[in-house]
Amino acid sequence: MTNRNVLDGSMNDEPERLNRRLVYPRIVTKIRERIAAAGYQPGSLLPSENALCQELRIARNTLRRALTELKREGLLDTIPSKGWVVVAEACPQQDRYKYEGIARVFREQIQTGLLPPGAPVPSEAMLRQELGISRYTVRSALAVLEREGLLETRQGKGRYVTRRAPAEIGRPGTSNQQG
Q1: Strand residues in the chain grouped as ranges (E)
Q2: What are the structural domain ranges in the chain?
Q3: Where is the HTH gntR-type domain (predicted)?
Q4: Contact at 8 Å (CB) between 93 and 129?
Q5: For residues 151 and 176, what is the distance between their CA atoms, to the nearest angstrom?
Q6: How far apart are the first and last CA of the chain?
Q7: Distances from the Cα of 61 to the Cα of 23, 67, 68, 172, 175, angstroms
Q8: Residue 15 near residue 52, CB atoms below 8 Å
Q9: What is the rounded distance in angstroms from the CA atom of residue 16 to the CA atom of residue 89?
Q10: Could you tell me which CATH number the domain at 3-86 has?
């Protein structure tokens, strides 16, 4: 039986016994090369850990160590319940969840002035109907914007765009205090 070593492409009659200290950096290099050669497109999910372990003929701990190193380098990120995703360096970060995309659209509308300070935000029911999404997704998107200080809730009246200077919008660490 001939075995192919995916790490270096060699063919041999017996499984290669690799020095454990050399495997992890070689896996990092192999995956980095695949990303650079567009084998793994930005925004795409990597194959499952199990599939990669079988393909590369390595232990899961070794693979996780390599993937964690690539995450530290900014080439990969994890999405809970989905797996490892290739980070798009040249492109804006892709939205992991639907609510993030909705929050991004509202944020852009606020930054460009399409939703001026003091403007009412459509109701949850209207957003659900217009966007065809669940109530939870709408509430999650609006909660993100409230945490960022871009929206405020007025009891019994609804949500409104806060009265903040455009230069403050989107800056990390800005509070929702009105000046």
Answers
A1: 3-4, 11-12, 76-79, 83-86, 151-154, 158-161
A2: 3-86, 98-161
A3: 21-89, 96-164
A4: no
A5: 8
A6: 75
A7: 11, 10, 10, 35, 42
A8: no
A9: 35
A10: 1.10.10.10
Residue 93: both structure tokens together:
């970060």
- pLDDT digits 0-9 by tens, 87-124: 865 444 556 678 888 898 899 889 888 889 999 999 99
**Tokens in use for 43?**
């925004």
The pair of three-digit structure tokens given for residue 9, joined into one six-digit string: 């492409």
CA distance 12 to 83: 32
Tokens read off for 16: 């290669």
Residue 117 to residue 164: CA distance in whole angstroms: 7
Partners of 93 in the beta sheet? Answer: none
**Which pTM was predicted?**
0.46
What is the assigned CATH class of domain 98-161? Answer: mainly alpha
